[in-house]
Amino acid sequence: xxxxxxxxxxTTAPSPTVEILGPEGWLAVCTLGxxxxxxxxxxxxxxxxxxxxxxxxGGRTYAIGxxxxxxxxxxxxxxxxxxxxxxxxxASPLLKQRFDLETGECLDDPAASVPVYRVRMDGAAAGGPxx
Length: 131
Description:
By secondary structure, this protein is mainly beta. 0% of the residues lie in helices and 38% in strands. The chain contains no helices and 11 strands. Strand 7 (87-91) and strand 8 form a beta hairpin. The model is unreliable at 1-5 (pLDDT under 50).
């Protein structure tokens, strides 16, 4: 008769903390492990605004305003991500306009845009403008 022994838990390094630069300074919003490529996470900022935080399959993080400028709803974190002409974007789940994750520009209506936030992990720049 063979006796099974429980495997000891693997020691893993803690996931880095993702921070965004908001109006009041750097703010920790989640860990990198909380993000799933292709899906967003909403973060409430101290001034009452919201940010949508994303990570792509290559591990690059992005943060833009969560408010859809066409409807006023805080939904961009729920949008689908993709790329067009090598530009990463999120498509609003409501009216499907696409917003560039690096610039905040609406790819379907150049008159519209959303704010873009600088992103860093554990104090080191990770993406976004001027990172």
